[in-house]
Write a structure and sequence with these properties.
The complex is a heterotrimer. Chain A is an alpha/beta fold. Chain A has 13 helices and 15 strands. Chain A folds into two domains: 193 residues, Response regulator (Rossmann fold, 3-Layer(aba) Sandwich); 128 residues, Response regulator (Rossmann fold, 3-Layer(aba) Sandwich), CATH 3.40.50. In chain A, β11 and β12 form a beta hairpin. In chain A, α3 runs parallel beside α4. The longest helix of chain A is centred in the first third of the chain and has 20 residues. In chain C, α5 packs antiparallel against α8. The N and C termini of chain C lie far apart (37 Å). The chains are: A alpha/beta, B mainly alpha, C mainly alpha.
Chain lengths: 376, 298, 283
């Protein structure tokens, strides 16, 4: 008896779902996947804000090809396996023309093969690990790559900070962190520097004193911590508690308002490489900051900027392709040259990476300040 | 040498946390022969309670604020533990032990995912109630004031527990029920009350651990109790489940082992270490380091 | 229209896989009374082994027809899982009840952490690019095989021995049943099929991540056999179907899924511990 009613209920439920999907021909569906919740939520939320701002502006001017852009967002909860599911849903169920995402390289890497297989162009706003665009010719990024980022910080540490002995503490569960650490190490050694210690942790850890005590014992001049803001803030705090006073160095994974909140005084005097500086006097940057502040009430971080830029690169490509055919859009993205983004002039190189400059930022007096810009 | 000592300090601090949680596991197992899967999540509730209380206090850092937060969290968790016992475990007092185990798993999941719904799944940052300062500094070894507080408060709580168990009537009753529930009933002990008190104390200790951890490792989130709970359980088994000094020994051993494995081998296997210790102990001496072998009666 | 069908078929396939998992777990927990909390670990071994074979052995074994290759990969995955079952079953022979549960939990987690650290199967990034060999036909064929094999085992003399062990291990030993041997059989057979289920899972999703094989996954299977009734194979099939459909129907309120599960566990244990179909055996 119970079995029969269950079977009936199931059929009823499934038939209901038949009425679920409707497609609107007057919009261009563009998919976005990011970490709207989870451990690195600020990455996803900032990117999301940037993308929405760009979309709003384009739609206010009538959209593209006389259609409005509709952004369909999926949350991957900061997990790679969810990134894959999210992108599959966007492609198969929402039939998007292109995908924007993700910030974290590991999540981009999980999703990219699906986009490549389905021949849907994907633009990652901020994934810097070289492997992402190596997945295939439908995968692009609007930012620089870690080979450049890691070596730049190595040079900065050696030449500018005169740090000749550096310890590295990296997140082994994260392709981005591992990659950056490797590229930093290679360049730093080439310059003649010494890597005195390499310690590791896993994303989600909260206790680092064991590793930091080992590092302290090797007396480095600086510590390179190319991880995400969630752990990096805690690492810095525990380091200071153990009596480690040398500056920390980091990558763009540091870029989040939470870094200062979690790290507090511990991250004073630290440097990290990034895609843009909020105190850059360039009118393009300041104009964007003003717009963003007006809509969201806070200063944009690099992820927001890159979200904005990647969306605009995509919209520009669609305009140039003059069609909604995904393959033609892909070709147009590949031909992007000197696109005036907020994060700099963007040209897609042969490997579908953006040729752009890096800025080094310093945390001083509880604020993030511009220290130096380095061109490729 | 100083590095070794520093690692030892780090290990002892975490060991205190594991010991406090392990005490709850061991006490409950002693009286109910139940592995209270939900215990690690009570620790999480301690941290969360502390978070919300701390945010509503006047915002200057002070030891007094810490005391208030600690006290309230202990009370909240004690009550929560007693409530769980009343609602989920008591109806199964006469059921096969497996049923209680499954229920405990259910309660644990309920706290974790209910917590995610209630508090939000994203990690929170515990307010800095006490600013970290080095307190003792000798020969390159630094003990911060927070580490000192953790060690001191844990010590006080453990001594208090020892006093209760050895010197009070309730303590005697607890030991009796752990020995034999049936016999205790015969001599007129109210077994239900004893069990309730056991849960009150055990859960209160877990709550204290939750607040103290939040001082030194301020990132908290609803699933934070899973791993420490499992590790503390392993610590309790290591020392001899049901054995209170065993829980302490196991807790400190676990904390130190973890720190040294991370420092001298690799951090990636740190979580697996607890399980490896578990398997080894269960295979070599299942009753634990301080436990006594009990023959199963037919 | 074809999009809806694909989604519908995906769910039916998942039900099939979960039937294999639930029935195989029931053999260990429900029939033999050995409370194992590490079933996800055996599933993982089967999944990763068969996936590694199909992904890396694709060119080497191109001479084989695809179907044979797939079945071989699944079988090898199952065998590796069975070996793991052996590895877990033997040392834990002396453990009872809670201790056994925790030991199996530990083994499950150790397996997961080891796989997580193996870079050639993707590590923390996940293992993608697995060929999509699993389909409705294969899954239900293997599900039926699993149920038939295990049901026959339960109805045979060996099955009676297993049930005796569940009821009272010491009594069983005293009437001459080699409890060690039978417990090992239960673990090995159960984990073999878990490995098959894992292999099918891998070739249905085409992507694996160790986060799918945590303690939580083991719990999901426990909920299934508890709901269906420990020891009732029909119950496991029914519960596997219900508990696979339920999260899909509740897709909009995903965060409530685990809360519903946890309450289900608690209420089942307090109100109806014998599960929906009770101790009724294979009908």
């Amino acid at each position: 008896m119970k079995l029969r009613s269950l079977v009936l209920f199931t059929f009823f439920a499934i038939s209901l779902s038949l009425f679920a999907c409707k497609k609107d021909p007057n919009v261009i569906p563009i998919g976005e996947f990011g970490s709207l919740t989870g451990t690195t939520a600020t990455f996803g939320l900032s990117t999301h804000n940037g993308i929405l701002l760009a979309t709003e502006e384009v739609n206010a001017q009538g959209g593209i090809l006389n259609k409005k852009i509709k952004i369909i967002s999926e949350d991957d909860q900061s997990k790679p396996e969810e990134a894959k599911t999210a992108v599959l849903k966007l492609i198969k169920q929402n039939e998007v023309k292109a995908v924007l995402g993700e910030v974290a390289s590991s999540r981009s890497l999980a999703a990219a093969p699906e986009c490549q297989k389905a021949k849907i162009p994907m633009i990652s706003p901020a994934s810097t690990n070289p492997k992402v665009t190596e997945v295939g010719n439908y995968i692009f990024r609007a930012c620089f790559v870690d080979t450049f980022q890691g070596s730049t910080m190595a040079k900065f540490a050696y030449n500018n900070l005169k740090a000749h002995k550096v310890a590295i503490i990296k997140d082994v569960k994260n392709d981005y962190s591992v990659g950056l650490a490797d590229f930093f190490e290679k360049t730093f050694k080439q310059l003649g520097g010494e890597i005195v210690s390499i310690e590791s942790y896993s994303e989600g850890d909260i206790e680092f004193r064991a590793q930091l005590t080992s590092i302290k014992n090797k007396s480095p001049d600086a510590i390179y911590a190319p991880g995400y803001y969630t752990e990096v803030g805690l690492i810095a705090r525990q380091a200071r508690e153990l009596g480690i006073t040398v500056p920390f160095l980091g990558g763009d994974g540091w870029d989040s308002p939470k870094t200062l909140e979690i790290g507090g005084k511990a991250v004073e005097g630290s440097y990290f490489s990034n895609h843009y500086a909020a105190d850059d006097p360039n009118p393009v940057v300041q104009n964007f900051i003003a717009k963003y502040k007006k809509k969201y009430g806070e200063t944009p971080d690099a992820m927001a900027v890159l979200g904005y830029d990647s969306a605009n690169i995509l919209f520009d490509a669609i305009k140039r392709a003059n069609t909604l055919d995904s393959t033609k859009i892909r070709d147009a993205i590949a031909e992007t040259k000197n696109f005036p983004g907020v994060s700099g002039n963007i040209t897609m190189d042969r490997n579908r990476n953006a040729e752009k400059r890096i800025v080094v930022l310093k945390i001083e007096d509880g604020k993030i300040k511009f220290a130096e810009a380095i061109n490729p | 040498m100083s590095e070794f000592l520093q690692q030892l300090v780090n290990g002892l601090t975490w060991g205190s946390i594991y010991a406090l949680i392990a005490l709850g596991y061991t006490m409950v197992y002693g009286v109910l022969r139940l592995i209270n899967f939900a215990h690690g999540d009570v620790y999480m509730i301690g941290a969360m309670t502390g978070y919300y209380v701390a945010r509503h206090l006047p915002s200057h850092f002070s030891e007094l604020n810490f005391g208030i937060v600690l006290g309230l969290s202990i009370i909240a968790c004690a009550l929560l533990g007693a409530l769980i016992e009343r609602v989920a475990y008591r109806p199964l007092r006469n059921a096969p032990r497996l049923s209680m185990l499954i229920t405990a798993i259910g309660v644990s999941l309920f706290l974790e995912y209910g917590g995610q719904l209630l508090f939000g799944a994203d990690p929170k940052f515990f307010p800095e109630l006490i600013v970290s300062r080095p307190m003792f500094h000798f020969d390159g070894v630094i003990i911060s004031n927070i580490q000192f507080i953790i060690l001191l408060v844990s010590f006080i709580l453990m001594i208090s527990l020892r006093f209760i168990v050895l010197n009070t009537k309730m303590g005697k009753a607890m030991r009796a029920v752990a020995f034999s529930q049936t016999a205790s009933q015969f001599v007129g002990i109210n077994v239900s009350s004893v069990i309730t008190v056991t849960f009150l104390i055990g859960s209160g200790l877990a709550g204290a651990a939750g607040v103290m951890v939040s001082l030194s490792n301020p990132k908290i989130e609803p699933l934070m109790g899973i791993m420490p709970g499992l590790k503390a359980f392993v610590a309790a088994v290591l020392g001899g489940i049901g054995n209170i000094p065993g829980a302490l020994l196991g807790g400190y051993l676990m904390g130190i082992a973890e720190t040294f494995v991370t420092a001298y081998i690799s951090s990636t296997y740190r979580d697996a270490l607890a399980f490896i210790i578990l398997i080894v102990i269960l295979l070599v001496k299942p009753t634990g380091l301080l436990g006594k072998t009990v023959k199963e009666k037919v | 229209m074809s999009q809806i069908n694909a989604y519908y078929i995906q769910i039916i396939c998942l039900i099939g896989i979960n039937i294999i998992m639930a029935v195989s777990l029931n053999l260990i927990n429900g029939i033999t009374g050995q409370f194992s909390l590490g079933h996800a670990g055996f599933m993982a071994i089967g999944a990763y082994t068969s996936a590694a074979i199909t992904v890396y052995g694709h060119d080497r074994f191109a001479f084989l027809p695809e179907n044979i290759f797939f079945i071989l990969a699944l079988l090898i995955g199952g065998i590796f899982s069975a070996l793991a079952g052996l590895l877990v079953g033997i040392p834990t022979l002396r453990l009872r009840g809670d201790y056994l549960a925790i030991a199996t939990l530990g083994f499950g987690e150790i397996i997961r952490v080891i796989i997580l650290n193996l870079d050639f199967v993707g590590g923390a990034r996940g293992f993608g690019g697995i060929p999509e060999y699993a389909n409705f036909f294969w899954i239900y064929l293997l599900a039926m095989l699993t149920v038939i094999v295990i049901a026959n085992l339960v109805r045979s003399i060996k099955g009676k021995a297993l049930l005796a062990i569940r009821e009272d291990e010491i009594a069983a030993e005293s009437i001459g049943i080699n409890t060690s041997q039978y417990k090992i059989i239960a673990f090995t057979v159960g984990s073999f099929f878990a490995g098959i289920g894992g292999g099918l899972f891998a070739h249905l999703n085409t992507y694996l991540h160790t986060n799918s094989f945590t303690f939580l996954k083991s719990i999901e299977f426990i909920v299934m056999i508890v709901l269906g009734g420990l020891g009732s194979l029909t119950g496991s099939i029914f519960a596997a179907a219900v508990l696979t459909l339920l999260p899909e129907l509740l897709r909009g309120i995903g965060e409530w899924r685990m809360i519903v599960y946890s309450l289900l566990l608690i209420l089942m244990m307090i109100l109806r511990p014998q599960g929906i179909l009770g101790n009724k055996k294979w009908k």
